[in-house]
Design brief:
Elements lengths: L2 E4 L5 E6 L4 H13 L3 E5 L5 H12 L3 E6 L2 E5 L9 E5 L4 H12 L4 E5 L10 H9 L3 E4 L8 E4 L9 E4 L4 H10 L7 E6 L5 H13 L5 E3 L3 E4 L10 E3 L4 H14 E6 L12 H7 L3 E4 L3 E5 L8 E3 L7 H7 L13 E4 L11 H11 L3 E4 L3 E5 L8 E3 L5 H8 L8 E4 L11 H8 L2
């Protein structure tokens, strides 16, 4: 297995320009493909996940042309994919697999969707159940409730509200919302239980509006889409910098120096920009510019007790910052991250993975069904070898441990290709 050895460091200084948001990139690609007209997408993320979406759209007959650095021209199919029979391999890209499942269920064709082994362990049953309520024909090719899937042509009936659980993955609701305008019918979705990761639904609604479809919302309980809704190209659209990726550099600044993160502002449509608030709760100094966020070293990192429903991906970085918390007792230095059950259905079971790897660097960790408590050691364990579970965020998070003055080894560092292929190059530029 390939390994990356990060030397001990104590300072983080400089600036970083963020890659495009994965969530925005793949939503924008699919909406542009479904729209009427040609869309130029600027600052698109260049990563494994977006590559899977681009490959799939090409197989479906959508013309996607790279016309410059991170700029793509997508010729929309006006809600009707040209190719009605296709087999798509989507790797471990949930932001491609879930929305394409819904869109293809409404596309009147025959499709096979598969991914890597881990994708076949990530539940999709709640989305499939909701689509079947609309009359979709979807079969499980292996295990019930999980990919791979076979989708065939169906007659849709949206006369009754579609019900979907809100407490497993917000990507299921996103997939339904983005696909329903393809039906041409009036449609209503009712959310059963608490909706997690609400900011990701805000991203979806914001982008759908930019492509001409206005969703009516009753708080977070139900959503309705008017009949004859249709996606229309906005001609040109820019992808914001990835707020989840910003978390590593903002944390580095708070732990060890002064870091400016470019490509993001306080007015971002991404919920993870609120990670900056959590940094402030932990003692960091945050300031905002028109297109940047500045993070400066905390006088003292403080432990927190936080409901992380609004920042599920960025909350992983808080688990690493917890290693630097100071106080006069273990109780004062113990951080609790709550409402993070969604970690279990991500690229890996992040709750168990995070607990396991934090213990390797000396932390005392309690893993609950939907929470972690982390008590830092008096001294971080040097030369820990961190397993990353083919999860890009595990690799990026644990790079920050080196700022505690200890060398650390990251296994399979290239897993960051999923969202941030040059992450470690950028990290090394900032730290010393």
């Amino acid at each position: 297995m390939e390994q990356l050895h990060l030397p001990a460091a104590s300072q983080a200084q400089g600036n970083i320009t963020l890659p495009g948001s994965k969530s925005i990139s793949n939503r924008t690609l699919l909406l542009a493909a479904l729209a009427d007209g040609i869309t130029e997408i600027h600052d698109l993320l260049d990563s494994d996940d977006t590559s899977r979406m681009l490959e799939s759209l090409a197989i479906l007959g959508v013309n996607c042309e790279n016309i410059g650095k991170n700029t793509w021209r997508v010729t929309g199919c006006n809600g009707n994919f040209p190719n009605k029979k296709a087999a798509l391999f989507l790797g471990n890209a949930g932001t491609a697999f879930r929305p394409l499942t819904a869109a293809l269920a409404f596309s009147g064709g025959h499709y096979q969707l598969s991914g890597v082994a881990r994708m076949h362990e990530r539940p999709i049953g709640d989305l499939v159940d909701a689509l079947r309520q609309a009359g979709a024909h979807i079969e499980y090719a292996a295990n019930d409730g999980f990919p791979p899937l076979n989708i065939s042509s169906a007659k849709l009936d949206l006369s009754k509200p579609l019900q979907i659980r809100g407490d497993v993955s917000s990507q299921f609701l996103t997939a339904l919302l983005m696909a329903l305008p393809l039906s041409g019918q009036e449609a209503k979705i009712e959310v059963i239980g608490e909706l997690i990761s609400k900011p990701y639904i805000e991203i979806t609604l914001n982008l759908m509006a930019k492509f001409g479809v206005k969703v009516n919302r009753n708080k977070w309980l139900s959503f309705s889409i008017p009949a004859n809704s249709k996606y229309q190209s906005p001609k040109s659209i820019y992808v914001e910098g990835d707020a989840s990726s910003a978390s590593y550099f903002l944390a580095a600044g708070a732990i060890a120096g002064d870091v400016q993160v470019k490509g993001l502002s306080k007015n971002s449509i991404q919920g993870d920009v609120r990670f900056a608030e959590a940094i402030e709760l932990m003692g960091g100094k945050i300031s905002f510019g028109e297109n940047h966020i500045q993070s400066q070293k905390a006088h003292q990192i403080k432990a927190i007790d936080l409901d992380c429903n609004h920042i599920p991906d960025a909350a992983m970085t808080l688990a690493i910052m917890a290693l630097f918390a100071q106080g006069n007792s273990d109780q004062e230095r113990t951080t609790t991250l709550r409402n993070i059950a969604s970690w279990r259905v991500k690229e890996t079971d992040r709750l168990t993975a995070m607990a396991t790897e934090l213990r390797k660097v000396g932390a005392t960790v309690v893993e609950g069904a939907d929470y972690l408590t982390i008590t830092p050691p008096a001294q971080l364990t040097p030369n820990a070898v961190i397993d990353t579970y083919d999860d890009h965020r595990m690799a990026m998070c644990f790079s920050l441990v080196s700022l505690g003055g200890v060398p650390i080894t990251i296994n399979d560092p290239k897993c960051v290709n999923k969202t941030f292929p040059n992450y470690f190059d950028e990290f090394k530029k900032l730290v010393s």
